[in-house]
Amino acid sequence: MSRPASPRSSTSSDSFASGRQSPLNGFDSSAALILVPDADDTPASTSFDFSSDDEAEEQSDLVLERLRSSSVPPLSSLSVFLYLLVPYLKLGALLLPEAGLQSKVGVLAVLAFAALSAFTRQIWYMLARYVRRSDLEEIVLETFARGRGKERRRTVFRQLVRLSVGSLRVLTAALYLRFSVDSLLPFLPDVLAVPSRLITTLVLAAFIAPLYSARSIGHRGVVYASWLSLAAYAAWFSCIAYMHTAGALMPVADAATLGKLWQGLPVVSFTFTTWWTVPLYASLKSTAQPITPKPRRSRSFKLLSVLSVAVAIAVILPLAFFDASTPSQPPVASAKMASAVFSAASLLFSIPSILITTPALPIPVSIRRATAFPLSKVLLYLITISLSVLPAYITRVGSDVVLILAFLSTYVVPAFLHITIHNFRRPLAIVIPPATPNPSASRLEASDSRNDELLQRKERTLQRRRLGRRLVWDVAVWVLLVPIGGGGLVWAVGRVADKW
Fold first, then answer.
1. Tens digits of residue pLDDT in 255-279
2. How far apart are CA 153 and CA 145, in angstroms?
């Protein structure tokens, strides 16, 4: 009479026999090892994993449905590359020729901040994979309000994130609209009873309103507008290069609407601020085909991120050699007008994508249910237009606020979240199942899985391996957080306060 196999031997043999094709069943050891593989062994074609229980497939469907209904839906590789590149070729790049930097300093600054921008995107990418969350809100909640019994804290942090993100995007859109008007005003007649600034602002706002009415940045009109923004930048760059060659390069617009920080290195730091990193990563992963054994390189978010930074360097670095502060002769009127029109178009066509991804205003549920009118969307647009026509002394302060918020969101926030979640929070388990067992599995199976010596050993080994790989990253992130982020913030506050 043969002896029955022990649970340990049965589990181990099943694990080796079934490999990665074993079905997920409860929290036995094979299921845990299959569910969360090592990051180096995870194929890029795997769908964006956010669940670690028997309902992983259902959770993936829910996440995909949420992405499809969000402002950043599943996008093609080309569209993801477009939205990774577009933020670089905006106001910061337009102001670089008049930033007052020497050529050598400008080149080093462009290369340094481009590298920092790529580094911070990689931090967001790793944070999203580590906590298995698809947006900034969820990453912040996993960092500061993980676990049960913290619903109030989660609500507070969720509102803070929405307020911060919404404020930055509305202020940025208002600044872009204001600067577009500033670029065009010198070429418009001022013979009407109504101020030309107000009329021009309303005309431009009405022009892009149909694009803003789209529900997501995946809408064809918004995608085309983003491509037009890139084309307008290319045309502006050609005009600027021609004027530089002729020795007639002039500032792109009236600097009276910009604050004290918009000179020198802060302009370069703003040039390489980023948007939508985590949503774009989730968007790209949600369009991957799970049945594909090996994904195409075009589906790699890291590759697309590096390519966007490389292209940005290629079309921004020459601007470091241009000097608009001391023209040797008056510019050609047609070239000056063309550069103003193209710079305004470059900013104007990027406003819809910024506002579409702005979190909705906290309007009471009773009002939202009473009407199908997009009240939040309209109010956000009206707020943006109103902010863009404020007096110049208020706009100058607002522009400095935009620069500081953009600097913090790009260079400080991801570093701070990385340090907090990896150094002040208990590390997430790699193969050990969570404390809450699967309802479909018995208590005995869950307990045996968590106390399995093989799993404990595997967990310790993988944690040590993860720690070893992360040490270098921790050092680099601390450098980004303290000297660069903290030092830059202190300098900016002192500069605004006229301390230096």
1. 678 999 999 999 999 999 998 899 9
2. 6
